[in-house]
Amino acid sequence: xxxxxxxxxxxxxxxxxxxxxxxxxxxxxxxxxxxxxxxxxxxxxxxxxxxxxxxxxxxxxxxxxxxxxxxxxxxxxxxxxxxxxxxxxxxxxxxxxxxxxxxxxxxxxxxxxxxxxxxx
Amino acid sequence: xxxxxxxxxxxxxxxxxxxxxxxxxxxxxxxxxxxxxxxxxxxxxxxxxxxxxxxxxxxxxxxxxxxxxxxxxxxxxxxxxxxxxxxxxxxxxxxxxxxxxxxxxx
Lengths: 120, 106
Hints:
The structure holds two protein chains of two kinds. Chain A is mainly β.
């Protein structure tokens, strides 16, 4: 069974940085596009960033563009999200998600999430 | 950006009821639409992709339909495990966007 395990969340002050990781197992990670989705407390789902299988293409929500960087290490089956200049509004549960291998960006396997709290 | 608008925001229903949730896109998205179910404390689960394709393992009581700007998710006979929040998502134009969610309550 596919497993996605996020780590790296925690409490950080506004303006600070945090690096999230997602360890994938039981699927051919290198052939899948991957995505980060977040859910702020009391809010709905928000797409954050996506990366294609070879990492050549990356996409970002306007709210994080220029502050967050998505990357992948296929040799370690790991997805990363480097988050800089964090703001209170970045407080959320961050999910690592795999993309269904069909045309379109549909999200099938989800991790359990890692909580990021931005507060002084 | 493509805005996704769901209605209603919440619905009260009973076991055995037929429930329909609507999702409207601010511009045409062909059939590039997904539906997800999320229960409290759990990660979302993909139900439907490409507007009407049932994801593996999803019960057949879930049905998606629609195209262009108007989509629906129908649960034909609500089961106790179906009480959850449902989200639509447009899946072709960046930034990818979700609807605000519909909570199905007892």
